[in-house]
Amino acid sequence: MKKLIASSPVLDGTTKMPHYTIQLLGEGGVGKTAWIKKIREDIFEKKYVGTVGLEVHPYHVETNHGIITLTLYDYYGRQEYAGPVKPTDKADATILMFDLSRKSSHKNLDYWYQQTHGEPVFVVGNKNDLEAVFTPTYHTEHDLPYWTASAKTGTIHDLLIPILRHLTGHDDLVIQGV
After folding, report:
1. pLDDT reading at 36 higher than 90
2. What gap in Å lies between CA 142 and CA 157, rounded to an integer?
3. Distance of CA 161 to CAs 30, 93, 97, 131, 176, Å?
4. Topology of the domain covering 1-6+18-29+47-127+155-170
5. Looking at beta carbons, which pairs linking 107-113 to residues 24 or more positions away fall under 8 Å?
6. In angstroms, rounded to a whole number, what is the distance separating the alpha carbons of residues 32 and 28?
């Protein structure tokens, strides 16, 4: 199990840790909550329980460039529930996630992309442990970074490293202690 580092944004009283807010957007059932559970607890939960509204998860990750504080926003994935909870305009990055085995989740990425506010956006095809039923194109049509991952068989490196490297500007950043 991943060791959670102290919850204070200041460790030694003088050095402030970098802080980033990352929101995960996409249809219900694509694996957003599963990834957050994988990141925070290093476990994969087989049982699907849809997110209601918004769940906010603090997380501290130790890297070769020091500790980074993340706030992970996990949004509901049903457009019909898009009521009072809207994606934040304070995000430092957004992950648009879809299910590689469910084409409809890819077709609806445009709805989620329209919810962003100019922050860097990354497209992630989740569930690469399953057989892909289509060839994703959204990322090329919108010139967005793209990779595949699996909350079931992957590691937090698969999801976070490209984003943290982009946000920090450290191309050599690696997560330590995992």
Report:
1. no
2. 24
3. 20, 13, 16, 24, 11
4. Rossmann fold (3.40.50)
5. 108/26, 108/27, 108/79, 109/26, 109/138, 110/138, 111/79, 112/25, 112/26, 112/27, 113/138, 113/142
6. 8
The answer to whether the beta carbons of residues 38 and 19 sit under 8 Å apart is: no
Radius of gyration of the CA atoms of the chain, in A: 16
User: Which residues lie closer than 8 Å to 73 by C-beta, 6 or more apart?
Assistant: 21, 22, 23, 24, 54, 55, 56, 57, 87, 88, 91
Does pLDDT of 50 surpass 80?
Answer: no
62: tokens are 């130790």
Global model pTM greater than 0.85: no
Give domain limits for the chain.
Answer: 1-6+18-29+47-127+155-170
Average pLDDT score over residue span 64-93: 78
Pick the range with the lowest mean pLDDT from 4-13, 25-34, 63-72.
Answer: 4-13
